[in-house]
Amino acid sequence: MTPVAQDLPMSRDDGVYQHYIDGEWTDGTGEETFTSRNPADGEELGEFRRGTEADVDRAVAAADEAFDEWKQLSHIDRAEYLWDIYHELKERHDELGEIVTMECGKEISEGKADVTEAWHMVEWAAGDARHPKGDVVPSEIPSKDAYMRRKPRGVVGCITPWNFPVAIPFWHMAVALVEGNTVVFKPAEQTPWCAQILAEMFEDAGVPDGVFNLVQGFGDAGNAIVEDDRVDTVLFTGSAEVGHKIAGKVGGEPGKLVAAEMGGKNGIVVTENADLDVAVHSATMSSFKTTGQRCVSSERLIVHEDVYDEFKERFVENARNVAVGDPLDEDTFMGPLIEEEHKRKVSQYNQLAKDEGVNVLVDREELDDSEIPDGHEDGHWVGPFVYEADAKADLRCTHEEVFGPHVALLKYSGDIEEAVEIHNDTEYGLAGAIISEDYRQINYYRDNAEVGLAYGNLPCIGAEVQLPFGGVKKSGNGYPSAREVIEAVTERTAWTLNNSKDIEMAQGLSADIKTKDD
């Protein structure tokens, strides 16, 4: 498949892509650059300026300066800028989908779906601008009107991951901007090219200077956003380790808020009443799409003993045969891992499972040379790793997030209560699914599974943008998408207006003014 990606001359100086701060492309203050590479073949995709704390300072200052004028616009006027971006995302769907695939390695249908999800989120946010805002609340006093209004919080720092490099930035930024906030965006260092294209879209749309700012770079740039007192909300999607550090820093600062969506050790419960066609299909999708590099990927399959042997046979057959290859090839099911460092992590967890005494069923960690596409020898290739383990054992491999195609089969013998107990036996609580034809089992899972995203007779991946996306426990606080993110980027004011010349108080409180002469 021949790449159709276009060069982006506006954001480059001497061949190096720049930051976008206060309506200008700039080298920033740093001398260092970094490179984006295709994880499938090691090809260099572009060189980028590495942001510094001074660059973040300038970007936050620009966002802070632009806030007052931006918030004075109506929701509808702010949304008009996003409609231009919505149309560009649709018009460049195939091109941008290929760029996503080239930069983060997920197969081409996933790359295109990432772009589709982005325009769905922009459409939702821009469309929501014309929906009712606030709530009218009955007052005890007939002459009073009581209602709630929302106002933007101010500067929003958006720190996003590499695995959804177009969709997740718009989860954060689209709603934040329509609600009247300004944005400083720090994308993952693995996918700066995708972020650069998004910045050009904002420039093309004519978004006022300082309303949107892009600073490329590493964790130090993200940390500078988090620690800046002028940043009112931090929206973060990424690892639990980093997210908890951010929450720890921000949580103690008055008036500041963090909304974090983090990782998971997600499970699928397959009951004795499951349709095994649905079960195997759902488990395969959940475990191996994006090469297991989704925060919602399933690494734990909790299967009833009555159907365990058949499920195992069929799932193992799929794991042995899913097509690993060039992610630009439409016949590929799994592409590479994102980078060599992550490949080492996945390998270490595979070895840990062996050391902890599990029964390995599939080990495609080292692929045959015939499975690696010609010219892709420098890619970060790995295949599925599947094993069975004791569902009640306290094993690291069955409780710690791997973020790769590393999957445990856990057999249970009791009722749905036992299955959900095993399911909940993890510090995480992001996503999960139940496969069953018994609605009572489904409802029990619905009411008792400790997750923020739950599915019945489906994979535990593939959330739609109009639904909240986030988890519980170690997985986050459930804010970062759709309607729920409005809570994170706005403040509520409870407003009460007296329509009478007299003052009458609620709760029977006396409004009489008494003097010493009474």
List the uncertain runs: 1-9
From the helix content, strand content and strand pairing, which structural class follows?
A: alpha/beta
Give the fraction of residues assigned to helices: 25-40%
Total of DSSP H or I helical runs spanning 4+ residues: 14
- Summarize model confidence as the mean pLDDT: 93
Strand element count: 23
The Cα radius of gyration reads: 25 Å
N- and C-termini, Cα separation:
91 Å
Major sheet: order of its strands? 16-17-18-15-14-20-21
**Major sheet summary line:** 7 strands, mixed
Quick overview of this protein structure:
This protein has 518 residues and is α/β, with parallel strands linked by helices.
Q: How would the blueprint of this fold be written?
A:
Blueprint: E1 12-13, E2 16-17, E3 19-21, E4 24-26, E5 33-37, E6 44-49, H1 53-72, H2 75-91, H3 93-104, H4 108-128, E7 135-137, E8 144-152, E9 155-159, H5 167-178, E10 182-186, H6 192-204, E11 212-214, H7 219-227, E12 231-237, H8 240-251, E13 257-261, E14 266-270, H9 276-288, E15 298-304, H10 305-321, H11 340-355, E16 359-363, E17 385-389, E18 406-412, H12 416-423, E19 428-429, E20 431-435, H13 439-448, E21 453-456, E22 472-473, H14 482-489, E23 490-498
Parallel strand pairs: 2-6, 9-10, 9-12, 10-11, 12-13, 14-15, 14-20, 15-18, 17-18, 20-21
Antiparallel strand pairs: 1-2, 3-4, 5-6, 7-8, 8-23, 16-17, 19-22
